[in-house]
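# step 3/5: fold
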Amino acid sequence: MAELTYTKGIYTAIATVREVEGDQYQGVVSLARDDGDEQENTVYEVDSTSSTPEEALEEAKALAHRILGEIEL
């Protein structure tokens, strides 16, 4: 499945999709913070599931943008 990468400063968000419950899909965002010493990772899940992977990826993209938008550098 496709994945998209977004970067803001030392933060990188990767939006992906995973299959859940048979024919349902969920968007997932992995946020990595790399400040040089060690990398810190956090995984965020879209609250709802979608019927297509494309729709779930759109939800993950929106979540990634929202997460990165809230980060102050």
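# step 4/5: annotate
The first strand starts at residue 4 and ends at 8.
# step 5/5: archive (pending)
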